[in-house]
Amino acid sequence: MTSPTGSLRDRVAIVTGAGSGIGRAAALAFARAGAHVLAVGRRAEALERTAASHPGIAVHAADITGDGAPQAVVEAAAERWGGVDVLVNNAGATVVMPLADTDPGRVAGLFALNVTAPILLAQAALPYLRARRGAIVNVSSTYGHRPLPGAAPYAATKGAVEQLTRSWALELAPDGVRVNAVAPGPTESEALAAAGLPAPVIEQIKRDEIARIPLGRRGTPEEVAAWIVHLADPAAAWITGQVITVDGGLELS
Asked: Which of 19, 55, 116, 205 could join 41 via S-S bond, C-beta 3.0 to 4.6 A?
């Protein structure tokens, strides 16, 4: 997977949630396109496995919800390579939480990771993105714009990500900074296991999802990562404020 134009060579990209799944695939895709990549995540060992896949990937282990963490992440990239061209807000969590079982602490933590941390990362990166006319790519979900019974708080966080995308696109357009989002459908990753669901429940969810997806399968992280790279590429210079759904047709069903 490479940049369509080669114009990502020597660009600097920050990818959060890069220890697995879509984040790992995106980090590798940017590195293969010639970018310098800072892979960010909580788990140092997982990040090292990501970095082992390409010499263009460096790692920064951090909980991006921690005080001062977003600024530290951005400065780590800028100090290493002199600036930031691309911010990929991919880190996030999936939480199954019916309304009757609402837990205030879990709701607050979900919004802190899925919404507040991307806001603060974008704020920290903004001076560099303005200087280089860079790009932000947020990772939403099909469920950022369609209902998800039993997991409304998660869907609400992704709806917020999509509104951030559109609003920032208008706000930052005069600076030449583009903001877009990719909204993946069900994708093979560790997200369901990380949500604490038992294996039999995960398998049933996957079967149910496949039954609803017109193309008849779940997606791969690499398929989503390809669109993240496309939206970050300067070749997409006239695309901003868009949410690109990559879900095998699920939102049509």
From this structure: 19
Fill in the amino acid letter for 37: V
The contacts of residue 86 (CB under 8 Å, 6+ apart) are 8, 11, 12, 13, 14, 30, 35, 134, 135, 136, 137, 232
Measuring CA to CA, how many Å separate 239 from each of 37, 214, 226? 23, 27, 16
Instruction: Provide the residue count of the chain.
Output: 253
Question: 248 φ, ψ to 5°?
Answer: 65, 20
Distances in Å between the Cα of 99 and the Cα atoms of 51, 75, 104, 146, 195 are 40, 39, 11, 17, 17
Distance between first and last Cα of the chain: 30
Written as tens digits, the pLDDT of the chain (253 aa) is 555 556 899 999 999 999 999 999 999 999 999 999 999 999 999 999 999 999 999 999 999 999 999 999 999 999 999 999 999 999 999 999 999 999 999 999 999 999 999 999 999 999 999 999 999 999 999 999 999 999 999 999 999 999 999 999 999 999 999 999 999 999 987 777 776 778 888 888 888 889 999 999 999 999 999 999 999 999 999 999 999 999 999 988 8
3-state secondary structure of 152: helix
